[in-house]
């Protein structure tokens, strides 16, 4: 991708109706670096959390020793996709994505609810550790951003159900970024939890993996005779969107008019425009723009593609 301008066209629409012209807002960003709002402040903490792994990946076993844990990005394999994406984010927005405080959380990636909950328990412990180290070094509370893909977002959401102790080091996830995260009944309400300050959910109409992720749930009820019965929820698939909430911005993504496949959310091309997308959403959030009745669609265009 050449060093040209990127155009982000932000389309606000009430789904599924067509978009009225008065609800269309266009924003143009140069390909220049994005600067932090506050100069000379301590760098934010960024944690990248990968999604489900259907094939055993050496990275998890080589660098994380098969145990869910946080590792500084500089300790990760330079040939890995996570390492490349971290450096791409840093090049686009060096103040927002400092490599000094950029981490990768590795977990097995197995398609299991129990495994994801166990990974969340471990993630909470690891966040406690790095927050404590951060406070000792910078003498202030950190700004924490979690960037997640697929069921990595479910792992992050499960932080809301982790049992806290009075002796725990308190922290808040200031920004939770969910890319192609399956929206499931068991975790969708967690975005409302106090541990998350603001959530950006990015999804694509072409991402079939997101909605095909299985979820097995039952509803228990009592019959007129007093017997307990269960009802299986059908279909056993996930959804694309969360319920509207003031702390949530949901973003339908297209690049040059084309929707993304599930894996493209972690491609270097998309990651290079991610800081610009988040910049728009955070600006709207700071100005208390409403998202409860509108769907925010982001279309991007690079002049080099014309």
Describe the model:
- With 306 residues, the protein is an alpha/beta fold.
- The chain has a single domain (6-305), classed as 3-Layer(aba) Sandwich (Rossmann fold), CATH 3.40.50.
- It contains seven helices and 13 strands.
- The chain has helices spanning 58-63, 81-92, 113-138, 152-157, 208-212, 268-271, 274-286; strands at residues 6-13, 24-29, 45-49, 69-72, 102-106, 144-149, 175-179, 199-203, 218-222, 228-232, 248-255, 258-259, 295-302.
- Strands 1, 2, 3, 4, 5, 6, 7, 8, 11, 12 and 13 form an eleven-stranded mixed sheet that branches.
- The radius of gyration is 20 Å and the shape is globular.
- Residues 1-5 and 13-32 have low confidence and may be disordered.
Oligomeric composition of the shown chains: single chain
* Percent in strands: 15-25%
- Helix fraction by DSSP (H/I, runs of at least 4): 10-25%
Strand-and-helix sequence, N→C? EEEHEHEHEHEEHEEEEHHE
Describe the secondary structure blueprint for this structure.
Blueprint: E1 6-13, E2 24-29, E3 45-49, H1 58-63, E4 69-72, H2 81-92, E5 102-106, H3 113-138, E6 144-149, H4 152-157, E7 175-179, E8 199-203, H5 208-212, E9 218-222, E10 228-232, E11 248-255, E12 258-259, H6 268-271, H7 274-286, E13 295-302
Brief sketch in words of this structure:
The chain is an alpha/beta fold.
Note the main attributes of this structure:
alpha/beta; 306 residues; disordered N terminus; eleven-stranded mixed sheet; two-stranded antiparallel ribbon; globular; Rossmann fold; 24% helix; single chain; 13 strands
């Amino acid at each position: 991708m050449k060093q040209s301008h990127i155009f982000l066209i932000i389309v606000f629409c009430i789904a599924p109706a067509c978009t009225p012209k008065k609800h269309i807002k266009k924003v143009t960003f140069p390909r220049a670096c994005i600067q932090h709002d506050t100069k000379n402040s301590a760098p934010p903490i960024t944690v990248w959390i990968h999604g489900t792994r259907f094939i055993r990946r050496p990275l998890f076993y080589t660098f994380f020793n098969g145990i869910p844990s946080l590792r500084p990005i500089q300790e990760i394999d330079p040939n890995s996709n996570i390492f490349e994406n971290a450096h791409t984010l840093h090049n686009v927005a060096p103040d927002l994505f400092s490599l000094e405080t950029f981490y990768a959380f590795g977990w097995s990636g197995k398609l299991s609810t129990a495994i994801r909950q166990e990974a969340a328990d471990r993630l909470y412990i690891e966040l406690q550790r790095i927050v404590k180290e951060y406070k000792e070094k910078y003498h202030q509370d950190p700004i924490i951003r979690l960037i997640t893909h697929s069921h990595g977002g479910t792992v992050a959401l499960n932080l809301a159900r982790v049992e806290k102790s009075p002796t725990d080091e308190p922290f808040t996830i200031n920004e939770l970024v969910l890319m192609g995260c399956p929206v499931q009944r068991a975790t969708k309400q967690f975005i409302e939890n106090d541990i998350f300050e603001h959530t950006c959910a990015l999804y694509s109409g072409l991402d079939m993996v997101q909605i095909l992720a299985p979820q097995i749930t039952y509803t228990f009820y009592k019959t007129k005779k007093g017997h307990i019965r269960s009802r299986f929820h059908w279909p056993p698939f996930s959804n694309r969107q969360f319920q509207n909430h003031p702390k949530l911005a949901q973003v339908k993504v297209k690049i040059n008019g084309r929707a993304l496949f599930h894996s493209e959310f972690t491609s270097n091309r998309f990651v290079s425009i991610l800081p610009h997308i988040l910049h728009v959403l955070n600006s709207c959030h700071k100005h208390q723009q409403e998202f409860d009745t509108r769907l925010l669609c982001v279309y991007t265009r690079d002049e080099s593609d014309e």
